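Hi R.,

Here are the chain sequences for the assembly we discussed:
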Amino acid sequence: MGDDGRRKKVEDLRSARWLRPDDLRSFGHRSRLKQMGYGSEDYAGKPVIGIINTWSDLTICHTHFRDRAQEVKRGVLQAGGFPVEIPAMPVNEIFMKPSPLLYRNLLAMEVEELLRSQPIDGVVLMGGCDKTTPGLLMGAFSVNLPLVYLPAGPMLRGNWQGQTLGSGSDGWKYWAERCAGNLSTEDWNAIEDGIARSPGHCMTMGTASTMTALAETLGLTLPGASSIPAVDANHSRMASACGRRIVEMVWEDLKPGDLLTAASFDNAITVDMAIGGSTNAIVHLLAMAGRAGIPLQLGRFDEISQRTPMLANIRPSGQFLMEDFYYAGGLRALQAQLTSLLDLSCRTVNGKSLGENIAGARIFKPEVIRTFDNPVARQGGTAVLFGNLAPDGAVIKPTAATPELLQHVGRAVVFRDYNDMAARIDDESLPVDPGSVLVLKHAGPLGGPGMPEWGMLPIPKKLLRQGVRDLVRISDARMSGTSYGTCVLHVSPESFIGGPLALVEDGDLIELDLAGRRLELRVSEEEMARRRASWVRPAPHYQRGYGAIFSERVRQAHEGCDFDFLEAGAPTPEPEIH
Ligand code: FES
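And here is the predicted structure of the full complex:
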């Protein structure tokens, strides 16, 4: 409803500015709709619903989106709206180099400008593959039109010789076995055939599953939407329901600005901890909160982590996959376990509160969704570290790490960048042992660029052959939500701009103290000053184009890696219609 509690009138529709006036400009708009075969009965007096579709032939996780767009349209038509499908930058996790995070902000900028510049009254955002969820939402928050988020849904479980395979996680796991000489080429090829076998996004609790769950917790999807497997018929029906609901939201004038609060972001962080979510979620939630004008600091994640048990027994921190999560009751069942930690009064896109939406939700498979009394871990999936090696913070996923390595002091083996690491990691003469700490530099927002998911540095083959499967690894990179190991990530400020990580040398002692939430470099201040005096900042990666904008304006990891000029601030005016 509008501020006065009344439904919007036809003349109040945003699109009416383009379509209703009796003038030459509106004549042009209407005549061109007629050129496309639409009559006034298609659009006159109806909300125009944008369907932002991130489908492409290379966006592997969205192969079903051409069908889903038709199903959304069906719902929009059923509810008396006028659907228009609009493609947007299909940021995909697999093929985009050097890092898809580089392009999250470009997608967000595109969505913002697509919505603002055209006669759109409300929007269904179609995404799911990692960066698409934050990219779509960040852009839409900045325009603040009614929106419903349509999550792509996870793919089905992988299968190899009757064994379940999980996206990413089992790729790393079996690659290590292959490097150790324990897996034949024939078996490795069979795993390649079976690990991804249906439409949908990665089906571990990677970034995609995490971010869609957080979108749902923020109240931006229909209840239960994020857990439905992509190929389940319920997913098609959910798509049509999105189309019906967004039309009503336009008449009600229910916008993201009416839903997003500090409490709804706390709810999202709570669920992030309870699902053992991807470390990437921290970067994205910080950026999304910035767009929504809601203050959020990195330390808040650790505060909430320490009071939140991890309940979702999903890989890489647990045993099962997202298909199992759906059959176990899905996100609503997990949220229903957290009622004492959630603000249930937060509003959602269906017009109801979070509490109303999860009322009565039950767990059907208690081995998949655990209870407060029997959690997977007593604390949340992510912890935040500070110290002289990370003055602005770093993150770690203790639930996916080796417990014995979480309190550790070891000598650094330093790689100056990814290419150096790739060239030397398997060198038999590399001075590395099971107590070493691998350090990777130049992998942050500017150094990568785009914080590539290099943070799960490979274990040197000579240690793999000895049976070693984990080491403490430290970088300013991110890691895939499907990765695992004792990996300290997002070290901020990054090495490329002269953060302390830039000054680490081979043989330095480094202390990881999870219990104390500390990351310390045991080098004297005098020695650090000496090293700093001789440090030279590298030249930026880009001289022109989008990369140059990125290099000049991106914020650091602890600030969410958005562009400084895109965070909430002075409102952008609606376009003049001339
Ligand atoms: Fe798209 Fe993993 S590749 S979610």
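The chain has three domains: 10-156+198-358, 158-194, 383-534. The first strand starts at residue 48 and ends at 53.

Let me know if anything looks off.

Best,
T.
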